[in-house]
Design brief:
Length: 416
């Protein structure tokens, strides 16, 4: 396992690493959720995004500290092993795989919806989703030496275009409607929308699997995470502000497109859908790269088959192929109505909360001190109530815990 990690080490600098982390964390939420929240809260919606940005900060700091101090392809699973042993390592590893296997296909379907609008294609949404997944996986097959270039091409281009388009639309919206600043009217309603927004800020634990790809992870990884967090929050708040200032009255499921129609009626119809497709391809690309690192780690630990730990030209091809196959399988399950996109997002979100709680407690155990305890306490207090209110998700988490117990038991028997 150490030999494999050495082959992956040292190919991302601060800028390319930050772009890859941003790509992992910027998904469909940027183009959809601001409208759904605005429909429920009106002018109070911007405060829900501000609150979620603040509440996500302890999670970001926790994962940045752990990733910098203990760089590993295992990410959160490795931290769980250091703090608690092999069982929680297996559990966290399976939770991350479960979250990505459920959340990423849902993102691919959203990306396919944008692609269908942009191209006026007659292909089924699920066929287009498979194309989006294959495109992202193709970029993810980049070897360690070419990864930095792929990141700059895929993530850099999509993020630059996103920031540029949002900046222009926001400027036009301000010129057209001015800026209205009001104090929040319904704090309880704002709090009620935070779980919906939260999934947009999930992904920092997956980014930790990329720490060994940095040339100097102990110095650069934490800074890259912080810079990425600032950029992600700025983009989400900019999108929410655009919807707020534009004051859209309809099409709340495509709010950025509706805002563009109102403030820039001469803009091409394909611009925002193409932007959405590119952002989601970049998100899938970054996530597949990160999850392939976790699969490498779990195969080295005996939790997954050893063949998945194979590297070819510095690329974990078998791991990427496995991720790609799982995502396509779940997309097909959605087409057959065995799963629903809302269910996939909800279950993935609960996985992330469980991972954050375990990682926070691991930080408190591994790096004792007031800061670690404050971070751990804030994450547990914020996350536990949300999890306890989702009975179906708790059943799913319990099933994952049983599966992790079985995998850990089988692994011990092989070692004996």
């Amino acid at each position: 396992m150490d030999e494999i990690q050495r082959k992956l080490e040292g190919h991302l600098g601060l800028l390319s690493g930050m772009l890859l982390i941003v790509a992992v964390n910027l998904g469909s939420g940027i183009l959809v959720i601001p409208g759904l929240v605005f429909e429920k809260l009106g002018n109070d919606a911007i405060f829900a995004w501000l609150a979620c940005s603040v509440l996500s900060a302890p999670i970001l700091v926790t994962m940045a500290i752990l990733g910098s101090a203990y760089p590993s392809t295992g990410g959160a699973a490795y931290y769980a092993n250091l703090a608690f042993g092999r069982y929680l390592e297996s559990l966290v590893g399976l939770l991350v795989l479960g979250a990505t296997a459920l959340g990423l296909p849902a993102l691919a379907i959203v990306g396919a919806t944008n692609l269908k609008i942009a191209t006026s294609s007659e292909l089924d949404i699920h066929c287009l989703a498979v194309i989006v997944i294959l495109l992202a996986a193709w970029f993810a097959l980049s070897g360690s030496k070419t990864l930095s270039g792929s990141v700059r091409f895929v993530s850099g281009a999509s993020i630059s275009l996103l920031v540029g388009v949002l900046g222009v639309l926001l400027t036009l919206a301000v010129r057209t409607n001015g800026v209205r600043v009001e104090f929040p009217k319904n704090v309880l309603a704002i709090a009620g929308q935070i779980p919906l927004i939260f999934f947009s800020f999930a992904g920092w634990e997956i980014a930790c699997n990329l720490s060994v790809d940095f040339r100097d992870p102990r110095r650069a990884f934490g800074l890259a995470m912080i810079l990425a967090f600032i950029l992600v929050c700025s983009v989400y708040l900019g999108s929410a502000a655009l919807v707020h200032i534009s004051g859209i009255k309809s099409n709340f499921d495509t709010p950025v497109l509706q805002a563009a129609v109102q403030v820039a009626p001469t803009a091409p119809d394909w611009l925002v859908p193409v932007l959405g497709t590119l952002v989601i391809v970049a998100n899938l690309f970054g996530s597949v790269v990160a999850v392939s690192r976790l699969i490498l780690y779990l195969s080295g630990q005996g939790i997954l088959p050893a063949g998945l730990g194979y590297l070819r030209d510095g690329a974990p091809r078998n791991s990427v192929f496995l991720v790609m196959g799982c995502l396509i399988t779940v997309v097909m399950a959605d087409q057959l109505r065995l799963l629903r996109i809302e269910t996939m997002f909800g279950m993935a979100g609960m996985n992330f909360l469980a991972i954050y709680i375990i990682s926070a407690i691991a930080l408190a155990k591994l790096r004792r001190g007031l800061v670690s305890w404050l971070l751990a306490g804030s994450i547990v207090v914020l996350s536990a109530p949300i999890m306890l209110n989702a009975t179906s998700s708790l059943i799913y988490l319990a099933s994952t815990a049983l599966l992790a117990s079985s995998a850990n038991r089988n692994n011990r028997m092989r070692l004996l």
